[in-house]
Amino acid sequence: MGLLDEQSWQGRVFTGGWVPAEGGDAAVIEPATGAELGRIGIGGAADIARAAKVAAGAQRDWAALPYTERAAVLRRAGDLFTTHAEEITGWLVREVGSIPGKAQFEIGTAAQECYEAATLPSRPYGELLPSAEPRLSMARRVPVGVVGVIAPFNVPIILSIRSVAPALALGNAVVLKPDPRTAVSGGVVLARLFEEAGLPAGVLNVVPGGAETGEELVSDPQVQVISFTGSTAAGRRVGELAGRHLKRALLELGGNSALIVLDDAELDRAVGLGSWGSFFHQGQICMTAGRHLVHESVYDEYVARLAQRAEGLPVGDPATGQVALGPVIDAHQRDKIHGLVTASVAAGAKVAAGGEYEGLFYRPTVLAGVTPAMPAYTEEIFGPVAPVTRFSSLDEAAELAADNDYGLSLGIVTRDVMKGLALAERIPTGIVHINDQTVNDEAHVPFGGVRASGTGARFGGAAANVEAFTDTRWVTVRGDVPTYPI
Predict the structure, then answer these.
(1) What is the pTM of this model?
(2) CA 174 to the chain's CA centroid
(3) Which of 34, 101, 129, 207 is deepest in the core (most CB within 10 A)?
């Protein structure tokens, strides 16, 4: 029997077990065809309250287990991603609109997230401190308790597991709220997989839902930390609500990342980087190359070659054909993309390729003559659009790249690596790639942005995960009981 063959999850939420959703249910829609793939439960206030209570009740016993047992569960979970890769790929292709290569990358990275998390329980969890008193003084890392994870639709497994896995490994319980549009891939898959891996009941709970469900999760008194990945606008609301409740909020938000092509770049390679950076997964990635800044001496040729490449990319249903781009997630997202394109064209940009759609299939689009005053330059498009802007000097390139609210990723293409590094120092971002495009990720690296892209490197890497999902407790031990004057 496959991971998702059982129908127990249909119309239900996972709160210590599969139970009917208080908030009703919703259809799981395949964006490429509009077909209904099943029905998932939508969490209401009572579902979140129950999930948080169940999680708090299960957390202490889970944290008290020998570290070797927690590590073993995470390793088994990693293995199960590989065991069930074909079935999970099918869901990512149909529910999310992923091409198979993207789905396979997502599954491989998710497995690595579990393996990396499995190393956390055996890490030293404290340090000895000097004390002026005759006592043993130490600082100890302890689980925060219950972690709330809110994950988006675009890369649903990775953007769930990268918080779920380390939080569990460090002794916490988790309530996961996946996006209702991709709740099977981003939620049900994890619930079933950790069940099979032997995670005790109640330690991981899955409650799909929209903004109201997320607000209930942030507000619940049992939940101590919120790990949110999503748009900057939604992240601001999460951060404000978490602050009101005095909770730690880990925010990984939007981006409008620059790919800078210097005058000495190898142009064919640069065009290949630009195409991948803007068109991979229909541009629905926070790290997407949202602004192509190209030196004036190679600008016209870069635009022509990128447009030619875009015109040759096949777009269609990834479940039935070999395509480079699948559908965007829904009509709302498509209309947002097209609105930014048409508004920029009205402001003077030229469509060098694309700019059209059929259903939810948006053609890879190249916009030339884009200026910093145009919507395609200033806003996160989250679609397969490559706005191209020219510059004449390194100073202008640095000014253009830095003059943006976001600060997630940065790519610089040049034959002079040291010049590229020096340029990167002038542009505030959480991630920099010299001679690569902006979309990169590995399970063991710190990941995050600055400015409107989030609260820094809060995901990935042992140190960042320990900081995110544990608290520090001061502990002292005396051999003799002291006396005090009053």
Answers:
(1) 0.97
(2) 17
(3) 207
Residue from 244, 110, 212, 234 nearest 165 by CA: 110
pLDDT digits (tens, 9 = 90+) for 111-150: 999 999 999 999 999 999 999 999 999 999 999 999 999 9
* Residues assigned a catalytic role: 252, 286
Alpha helices in 144-253 (DSSP H): 158-169, 183, 189-197, 211-219, 232-244
How far from 132 is each of 61, 127, 296, 339, 474, CA to CA, in Å? 36, 16, 65, 66, 15
Question: How far apart are alpha carbons 412 and 419 in whole angstroms?
Answer: 10
C-alpha distance from residue 469 to each of 117, 145, 227 (Å): 12, 9, 9
Q: Taking residues 442-465, report their average pLDDT.
A: 88
Q: ∠ at Cα 418 (452, 395), nearest 5°?
A: 55
Query: Alpha-carbon Rg of the chain, whole angstroms?
Result: 24
Question: Span 32-60, mean pLDDT?
Answer: 97
How many CB atoms neighbour CB 263 within 10 A?
Answer: 16
| Lookup: tokens for 191 | 């619930």
Q: What number is the average pLDDT over the span 331-339? A: 98
Structure tokens at 344: 């920029």
- Return the number of other C-beta atoms located less than 10 Å from residue 248's C-beta: 18
pLDDT band at 6, cuts 50/70/90? Answer: confident
- pLDDT at res. 1: 58
Q: Which of 69, 55, 73, 215 is nearest to 147 (CA)?
A: 55
Element (H, E) at 289: strand 289-295
Spatial distance between the Cα atoms of 139 and 125, rounded to a whole number of angstroms: 8
CA 315-252-4 angle, 5° bins: 60
CA 175/CA 446 separation, integer angstroms: 23
- CA angle at residue 228 from 166 to 45, to 5 degrees? 105
Neighbouring residues of 483: CB distance < 8 A, sequence distance ≥ 6? none
| End-to-end Cα spacing for the chain | 70
As given in the structure block, the two tokens for residue 149 are 């994870």
What are the strands, taking DSSP E only, across 357-437? 357-358, 361-362, 365-368, 385-391, 406-407, 410-413, 433-434
Rounded to 5 degrees, what angle do the CA atoms 307, 317, 319 make?
135
Give the number of other Cβ atoms within 10 Å of residue 74's Cβ. Answer: 25
Say if CB 412 and CB 429 are below 8 A apart. Answer: no
Beta strands in 324-449 (DSSP E): 350-353, 357-358, 361-362, 365-368, 385-391, 406-407, 410-413, 433-434
Describe the chain by its helix, strand, coil percentages, rounded to 5. 40, 20, 35
Instruction: Give the pair of three-digit tokens for residue 381.
Output: 């498009």
